[in-house]
Amino acid sequence: EKYPEVTCSNVDISGITRSIELVKNSGLGYEFRTTIVKSQLRKENIIEIGKLIKGAKLYILQKFVSSKALNSKFLDETTYSDEEFQYLKDTLESYVDKCLVR
Questions:
Q1: pLDDT for 72-97, tens place per residue?
Q2: 66 near 78, Cβ under 8 Å?
């Protein structure tokens, strides 16, 4: 539900859900990945993404690194702690086959 806000775009969410199903049912190797900026995604939002991709083979939680940000407004942003990522990983593995933190 936060996709348009986070990406600053006018996106048809139903198209995203159709794409998710196409990817999951394609028979090809895939991963879903979310780069986590703490100010943009609450833990509850990340868990909702897990529910949206329920049954996925692999979900990657990618730690945001401010020094790699292309937009200078993100230079002071942070991500969650290792402990918080572990909680998210453990929770998400009830929705997806495997969850990794990068």
A1: 888 888 899 999 999 999 999 999 99
A2: yes
Please give the C-alpha separations between residue 2 and each of 5, 7, 45, 68, 102, in angstroms, as whole numbers. Answer: 5, 8, 8, 23, 22
What is this structure's pTM? 0.88
The Cα 87–Cα 78 span in angstroms is: 17
Closest CA to 99 of 40, 65, 68, 55: 55
For 63, the 3-state DSSP assignment is strand
Buried b (16+ CB within 10 A) or exposed e, 45-84: ebbebbeebeebeebebeebeeeeeeeeebeeeebbeeee
